[in-house]
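Box 3.1. Reading complex inputs
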Amino acid sequence: MYKKLFKKHLENFISILSKFGVVYAPVKKASKLYDFTELTDFKELQLKYTRTMIPPKKFFLKPKEPLYLLNKDKGFKEIVDDSKTVLLGVHSCDINAINLLDRVYLNQFPDLFYKTRRDNTIIIGVSCEPDENCFCTSTGSSHALRGFDLFMHEVDDRYIIRVGSLKGFQIISECKNILADTSLPDIKEFKRVEAERIKRISLNLNVNGIQDILDLSHDHSAWQENADICFGCGTCNLVCPTCRCYDVVDYLKLDLKNGLRARRWDSCMLRQHALVAGGLNFRPTRVERLYNRFNCKMSFSEDSLNCVGCGRCTVYCPADINFVEVLNQVRED
Amino acid sequence: MTWIIKNEKPKIGVFSLTGCAGDQLMILNLEDTLIELLAKFDIKSFQEASSYSENTKLDIAFIEGSVSTDHDLKILKNIRENSSLLVAIGDCAINGCVQAMRNNQTSIAERMLDVYGVKDNVYNALEPKGVGEYVKVDAEIPGCPIEKEEVFNAFISLLNGDMPLIPDYPVCVECKLNGYPCVIIEESKPCLGPIITAGCDARCPGLGLDCIGCRGAIRGETNAKAELETLRKRGYNDKYIINRLRFFAGNFEDIKNLGVREASKGERDE
Ligand code: SF4
Ligand code: SF4
Ligand code: SF4
Ligand code: SF4
């Protein structure tokens, strides 16, 4: 189902959204930095943005979060955050990334903390502004088929809104006064704008047979060359919308009886990531860690890669290691 | 990792070698919890807090300051002999810190002449080094000075029979967890965060400043060459970068080894 919202009604639309939860949307924080921030001032909203540094996964799997209150005698108590949230302006790549995280955190053994927030969050997509680091057409994530409640495609002075869920339908029903039905010219224009947007995604990553290529190139010199200039700083993982690893720590209170169990995002580029009890580290060197990261991102689970082509790891790497270039280097010989 | 607690109230001592005593001060700055915290220990020495001092066997010795004189070395060896655990607190005790800035660059005689106007080593000075160069160290709490929170958690861990948990990853991680703009990426500032031990919650980048490395380079993971390259590409010259790296980490092998190369064109010397 498609509806049409003229831009002049956007502020109104957002005030209706705020009835469904606290609205978070992209806000510009520095020259290259956008961040999903609580929208308190409509003027701060930046629906035309390249990418946020920290992906929207931060709402479901928080960068740092308390999990349990501990007590030596009474056991533990979960700390669950069930606040209602609306994420406005999520790009297709990031929606596809959330779909990947859902497989890990919701299937089989659902993660209570993730699931609670996922259930309490409305996701509203928006068409993206690709730059030279985007390669989502290569990873099949330039379009979102599911994983959103509404999706707003910007077409000139209006948004063509796609409804993706029952919750999305409920929002639409509240917006009767400001929404209109789409007409044939709208759809024609929509198709033209979409095709034009896709054309702007010019960076290509050949993912054909990529798993075999990586398997066969374990000894390729590109790994060592890049490991030599890599800091092992973890940035590439921490900004990646599909990275899902965390580390758990207990903090005790002075009475040594009460405490807090918390987790924070981890990174396979950090040397303690593969350290296990007894002191064995099965990826002690940076080159092993780098190889592992590229393998993880380029492996297929079910039908898709673990990379959605957002370009963040390249943009934010302080050592200027370029994700697509490394893979091309490995493929070339 | 764990250690065996022998006494219900572990006997502790807090000692200073060459340094500014800022780390002892940071322990005293734990105002809200200090009395309650220290009551869990049997304090045998605490230079900055009390003139009372007992020369006795200890469960844990906390040492701040670097070994910079003969005298420091003698004190250190005595403490080590008398303590089950030795914890180096602060960058000076861990690696020599600011005192080690000129190590291997000028001789002690030159430094004596510069500062005191005499060539003779009247104070029996040694090249400043961390205590680990001379004795076995069981745990380290980095920082210049150490972080209150980290000290507090370290004390609790020790009371619980655990070893202190100290990050061994760089400041960049904390920048990301906090969503701070990266000052290298955004503004080409000469940030040392990628090779510096986290634990300050990326205090400086959080304020828009570049990290100068006060928590010390990361043991065994410092890619100093990559830092040199990263900052060169952004227009800084070798001399500036190397001086900056040596400020807190002059004793680090890979920083020592960089050497000063010809300054490149289009340099930026701030
Ligand atoms: S962001 Fe760059 S420097 Fe940091 S770990 Fe990743 S590849 Fe290495
Ligand atoms: S690997 Fe890089 S490009 Fe791919 S999803 Fe992660 S951050 Fe984006
Ligand atoms: S500001 Fe410095 S510490 Fe923070 S991410 Fe950038 S390089 Fe790393
Ligand atoms: S200089 Fe670096 S390590 Fe020190 S407080 Fe600032 S950010 Fe942290």
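In summary: The radius of gyration of chain A is 22 Å.
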